[in-house]
């Protein structure tokens, strides 16, 4: 797919089914995610790839246990079940600020790099013909999910990238009215 066409027409999709990316396609996505702008080479991102039947089952159970343990009730439990079954591949993106080096770059810059990494995953999935959506919701604050993703106290789950093949037509380009957003000098 032409890169500019992809960048100007990409849309999210929340109704996803198999197939998901294969091993080579996944590798390309993770390579794209790690080529993002990164001031000082902080590498402040971690990825948790959930794709096996057991992994997806574990993911669903973590979401549902989160609802049970925090007493969120039936409506949220239905949401947990929906999110847990949303896609045949989930990639958790964790912002892991680098504080180890002598002069770490500001955390806001590092978080932007991690956000770019999440977008890189989306773009590389779309470029290979897969549909996807970036979600967060209350799930990213789940202590159980944080533990399962190996988060330390300073880390933050910034995205659950839902990836697969859409069961419905895409939304089409947004054709943004640029005037509201752009000042030209
Ligand atoms: C950091 C971040 C978190 C998001 N969290 C959610 C979410 O929890 N649920 C949701 O429906 N959309 C969420 N979105 C928005 C979708 O990913 C998507 O961008 C939106 O539905 C608009 O669709 P589009 O990407 O086709 O324009 C999030 C986006 C970002 C960047």
> What's the mean pLDDT score?
97
The fraction of residues in strands falls at 15-25%
Give the SSE string.
Answer: HEHEHHEHEHE
Bound molecules: flavin mononucleotide
Largest sheet features: 5 strands, antiparallel
- Helical content (DSSP H or I, runs of 4+): 25-40%
Shape from CA axes?
Answer: globular
Continuous helix count: 6
Task: Describe this protein with a few key phrases.
5-stranded antiparallel β-sheet, binds flavin mononucleotide, 6 helices, alpha+beta
How would you describe the overall organization of this protein?
Helix content is 39%, strand content 17%. Strands 1, 2, 3, 4 and 5 form a five-stranded antiparallel β-sheet that branches. It has helices at residues 3-9, 23-33, 53-69, 74-84, 107-127, 143-148; strands at residues 16-17, 45-50, 89-95, 131-135, 156-166. Helix 2 runs antiparallel to helix 5 (107-127) and helix 3 packs antiparallel against helix 4. It is α+β, with helices and mostly antiparallel strands and 185 residues long. The protein has six helices and five strands; from the N terminus they run H-E-H-E-H-H-E-H-E-H-E. It is globular and about 55 Å long. The structure holds flavin mononucleotide. Flavin mononucleotide binds at residues 11-12, 133-137, 159, 171.
Brief rundown of the structure:
The chain has 185 residues and is an alpha+beta fold.
Layout of secondary structure:
Blueprint lengths: L2 H7 L6 E2 L5 H11 L11 E6 L2 H17 L4 H11 L4 E7 L11 H21 L3 E5 L7 H6 L7 E11 L19
Antiparallel strand pairs: 1-5, 2-3, 3-5, 4-5
Helix pairs in contact: 2-5, 3-4
Bound molecules: flavin mononucleotide.
């Amino acid at each position: 797919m032409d890169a500019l066409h992809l960048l100007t027409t990409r849309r999210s999709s929340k109704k996803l089914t198999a197939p998901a990316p294969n091993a080579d396609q996944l590798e390309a996505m993770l390579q794209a995610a790690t080529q993002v702008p990164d001031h000082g080479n902080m590498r402040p991102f971690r990825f948790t790839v959930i794709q096996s039947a057991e992994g997806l089952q574990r993911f669903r159970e973590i979401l549902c246990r989160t609802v049970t343990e925090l007493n969120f009730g039936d409506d949220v439990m239905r949401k947990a079940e929906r999110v847990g079954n949303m896609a045949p591949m989930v990639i958790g993106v964790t912002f892991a600020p680098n504080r180890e080096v002598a002069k770490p770059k500001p955390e806001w810059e590092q978080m932007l790099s991690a956000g770019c990494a999440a977008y890189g995953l989306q773009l590389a999935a779309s470029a290979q013909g897969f549909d996807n959506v970036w979600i967060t919701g209350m799930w990213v604050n789940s202590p159980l999910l944080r533990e399962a993703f190996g988060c330390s106290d300073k880390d933050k789950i910034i995205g659950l990238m839902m990836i697969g093949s859409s069961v419905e037509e895409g939304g089409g380009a947004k054709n943004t009215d640029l005037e509201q957003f752009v000042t030209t000098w």
